[in-house]
Protein 1
Amino acid sequence: MISTVSGQIRYSIPEEMKKGSLIGNVAQDLGLDLKRLRSGRARIVTGENHQYTELKTDKGILVVNERIDREELCGDVTPCSFSFEIILENPIELHRVTVEILDQNDNPPQVLYPVQTGGSVVAELVPRSADVGYLVTKVVAVDVDSGQNAWLSYKLQKATDRALFEVGSQNGEIRTIRQVTDKDAVKQRLSVIVEDNGHPSRSATIAVNVAVADSFPEVLSEFTDFTHDKEYNDNLTLYLVLALAVVSFLFITCVVVIISVKIYRWRQSRVLYHSNLPVIPYYPPRYSDTLGTGTLQHVYNYEVCRTTDSRKSDCKFNGAGSQNVLIMDPSATGTMQRIQSEKSILDEPDSPLEVRPITY
């Protein structure tokens, strides 16, 4: 069984609403119960690629699913709206919903003429013989918003000589308001502001260069100097900014390096001060351990150093090492006998060092 609703539900919302913003209470407006929405598996059916709305069946409300831009959706078409159907099953019901998008003043005016160029200066030529009301140029601007948000007005914001020019508030025409004289400067610069009628209003500013002269070479020389001065000032500002950045970087780098070196030296001193490394004994050349193999090389020289007085730092050495040798007979198998002096040399601190040969 299919039943259709003869009427339509129509909602009006502003553009650029956030995702999740409420559009309307569908269950209340259609006279449906929340149980009916859940049991009927209520859902939105649309032929568009974008689904701008979402149906919350648990609450029976319609919310914004994604950002809606009126200019992107409809362009210059007014009014702007889109439609879709809400379908329910068991029995099948179709309810048509239309959502109208109200324009918001989210776009500023765009100036089409005079064209703003970055590298060159375009000037409007005004002869010195121009009379009152002479049309210098016309500022042309558009606003992509609709309705009163797209109504534009023009105003002269700045001028080299405000007593010489005026701007039409509705049409953007720039005209002379007095007779041009020889005393007027060749180079004239006007600043025109274009405002829309939105709340709050948005605006755009356009610079208009006017040359008061009778010959083109005079105009060329004046505005060439003007362009050169502007480029010189821009380059000077850029160089100053770069120099400041380089100096700041070098200063910060030096500070970091100095601090790092100091920290490294401090840590090294602390490591050396608290070092607990084991002492590695020093073995004389040609030294061999006799405990492991029972063998020892035939001839070894020994040198003993001791101080003659504990209060002094000089050392006293014994005689030539070649006379003090330790001899081992490889063929001996008997018990080793050791000949020692009856009195140890260590008992006499002032006596010269003696080294006696030891035989096995």
Note: The two ends are 127 Å apart (CA to CA).
Protein 2
Amino acid sequence: MTAAELEAGVSPEPDVSELNIFSDNGSQSVVSQLLDHINSHEKSSQRRGGFSERFLRWRRRYLPVGGDNRRDHGSLKLSGPLVSGAAYCISSCSMILMNKVVLSTYNFNAGISLMLYQNLISCLVVALLKFSGVVSVEKINWKLIRVWLPVNVIFVGMLISGMYSLKYINVAMVTILKNATNIITAIGELYMFRKRQNNKVWAAMFMMIISAISGGITDLTFNAVGYTWQTANCFLTASYSLTLRRVMDKAKQSTKSGSLNEVSMVLLNNLLSLPFGITLIVLLGEWRYVISTDVTKDAMFWVVATASGFLGLAISFTSMWFLHQTGPTTYSLVGSLNKVPISLSGLVLFNVPLSLPNLFSILFGLFAGVVFARAKMS
């Protein structure tokens, strides 16, 4: 996934067409004549060449040529990362909290069905955007499906385990325990890709282990089932990341264009997860619960569930948008900082019983996540 870094300045050499924005035709004529006269003697005299450069610098600094446009352009470049970063943080926080509401507040005991519904919404929205010409999607073929299938199996397992862990564990502890994913991924990179981490990264990961253990011990709402699901989620999330790196190049070779953009990957993941979800719902008998439970007759439940589906898709797009506006390092750091409002919001909104040692473990885990991101940047 390519990332374009933020460019703070403006182009050092403005185009001659910038002269067209003058409102005074006389001023335009004078400046044009001066530039033509200077440029005609620029090659024959080093002294005049130097004067030409000084004059151009003076013109860019004091004359109102493109000044308004340049300021607007600069403000757009500065506001782009801020807007995309805010959109990413809001959608990420909202998605986790919304899933917690659906699974816990409404006491909905069908995580696979919720995943299926959310993925279906994502497929429909991407298809609508494709037919509207807003986004381009790579054509899916059987060769690409066979290559992508292992990634999708892990993807489905990652979503399901994440759903059930949220049902049994409070949001703050889920966020802290997710730090274990970074540790598993780093170990996997060491053995699979021979990628070694620096001492700062290993120190940060040791801090994450301490925070996770102390958080679990001091958790007043400890639930063994929830912690089991979250442990599985950490392994599956790390496996998804590592497997995706291996499959990515092979998947691109399986397409006609030789490329696979992010939108196509979002559609591929969500589309292939539908038959898996339907099969699991039938085999586990979850469909009986869905059609018989009273919560599915509540209109507000469907509003919240639908909103969670749109938010899931929003995370995919806003994360790509933010990554392209900034870069991987900034994206990683903001992702770590984003855990702070998620954790605190989860504690406040769901009235989680909390002790001082548990609060300290959560804050220590959040700090460890930020240290990890900073260490990866160094």
Note: Residues 5 and 326 are 5 Å apart (CA to CA).
